[in-house]
Structure formats: structure tokens, C-alpha cells
Design goal:
Elements (H helix, E strand, L loop, with lengths): L9 H23 L5 H24 L3 H24 L7 H23 L20 H4 L31 H18 L5 H8 L3 H11 L1
Helix pairs in contact: 1-2, 1-3, 2-3, 2-4, 3-4, 7-8
Length: about 220
């Protein structure tokens, strides 16, 4: 079984080199500010750990003011040490304000690490919550109150008028209608009066509803 050959990642090598140089610059600045021995080596570790903690908070919980604040503080501390040890600062005669900043860094880093580890996420772009549902208005507010009515001006309501339903249309043969006309004409010649429905029904021998339909067509 062949083992896979080790591949050198250029990005990883570059990160190791950059980290080593930044580590050395922070150590030199801390030593020049009066932090000798193991304390000078602890400063680079503190700065880099705070930088990594803030970056991890940004990656896991999203952008927040707290994470960005401590990320920028650690980044300025690292970049400041790199620039200060590039010949712009006399390491044999470090100013008092820089000694104060270096001496105050442990407390500042401890506070930043504690806040990043134990505070809740404070997102700058908070997602909008659900829209509030308005309370339904009471029925008394939605319906207007009826105006007072004077009893003297009111009349009792009239009962509803029900119209009689129209009789259904009865089909009448045309021949039967012609025969009914002859019967009606003969009756009117003999009596001088128009034939009524009962007489027409008796003369034709048809049921009442059919006699009514025929009489309606003769009218």
C-alpha cells in the first residue's frame, strides 16, 4: 500500500513565515518596553490569540460590533509592533506612553477574550421579525349605533304581500285552439255573450287547467 506523498501548501508556508515574523516583532517590542523574560514571549501569543478569537467569532456568529471592535484592536496591536520595530522607533529609548500601552495590554486582552467567549451575538444586520398583527377592533366600534327614532313618526310595518304564483304554461294543440274558437263563436251568436271558462270546459270536455289555458288564448 503506497502512502500519499506530502504536498507543500504555499499558502500555509506563507502563513507560518508571516506569523513567525509578527511574533518576533511583538516579542522585541515587549522586551524593549520593559517586559523581559517569559513575559516578552507571552505578549505575541496574547495578541495572536485575541485576533484569532475575534475572527472566529465573525465566522461563526456573523458580523457584530463586538467582534469587529476586538479584531481591529488586535490587528492594530500586531501592525503597530511590526511598524515600530522597522526602524521608526528607538528600541533603546521607548517613550513612556508606549510602555503604558504594553503594560496595560494583558488586562485589555483578558477583557476582550472574556467578552468574545461569553457574550451573546450582536448582529449589525438583524433580520426583521414577524410583522405585528393588529388587534381586531371590537364590534361596538365597527358598527355605528342606530339613531334614535321618534315613536310618533313611525308607522307599523305592513305585512308582506305575497303575489300568487303564475300558473305553469300548459301546451295547447293548435287544432284544439281552432276548435275552441268555433265553439266560442257559435256560443256568442246564439246567446249574444262571450263564452265563460266553465261552459268552454263543458263543451270541449277538457280538464280545468287546460280550459284555463285555452280561454287565455281566446281572450
Amino acid at each position: 500500500m503506497t502512502r500519499p506523498a506530502l504536498r507543500v501548501d504555499a499558502v500555509l508556508v506563507q502563513a507560518v513565515i508571516a506569523g513567525a515574523l509578527s511574533f518576533a516583532h511583538l516579542h522585541d517590542l515587549a522586551a524593549a518596553a520593559g517586559q523581559d523574560g517569559w513575559k516578552a514571549w507571552a505578549y505575541p501569543v496574547s495578541v495572536d490569540l485575541l485576533l484569532v478569537a475575534a475572527w472566529r467569532r465573525l465566522r461563526t456568529d456573523g458580523p457584530s460590533r463586538l467582534a469587529w471592535c476586538w479584531f481591529l484592536i488586535a490587528l492594530v496591536a500586531s501592525l503597530g509592533a511590526n511598524v515600530a520595530t522597522a526602524g521608526l522607533l528607538d528600541l533603546d529609548d521607548v517613550p513612556a506612553w508606549l510602555r503604558i500601552l504594553v503594560a496595560a495590554w494583558p488586562a485589555l486582552a483578558f477583557m476582550g477574550g472574556t467578552l468574545l467567549a461569553h457574550s451573546s451575538a450582536d448582529h449589525t444586520s438583524a433580520s426583521p421579525g414577524p410583522a405585528p398583527v393588529p388587534d381586531p377592533e371590537p364590534a361596538s366600534a365597527a358598527e355605528p349605533e342606530p339613531a334614535p327614532v321618534d315613536s310618533a313618526d313611525t308607522a307599523p310595518p305592513l305585512p308582506p304581500v305575497h303575489s300568487a304564483p303564475a300558473p305553469p304554461a300548459v301546451p295547447v294543440p293548435a287544432a284544439l285552439v281552432d276548435h275552441a274558437r268555433k265553439v266560442a263563436a257559435d256560443h256568442e251568436e246564439r246567446t249574444g255573450a262571450r263564452i265563460d271558462t266553465d261552459t268552454l270546459r263543458a263543451r270541449l270536455g277538457v280538464p280545468p287547467h287546460l280550459a284555463d289555458a285555452i280561454a287565455a288564448q281566446l281572450a
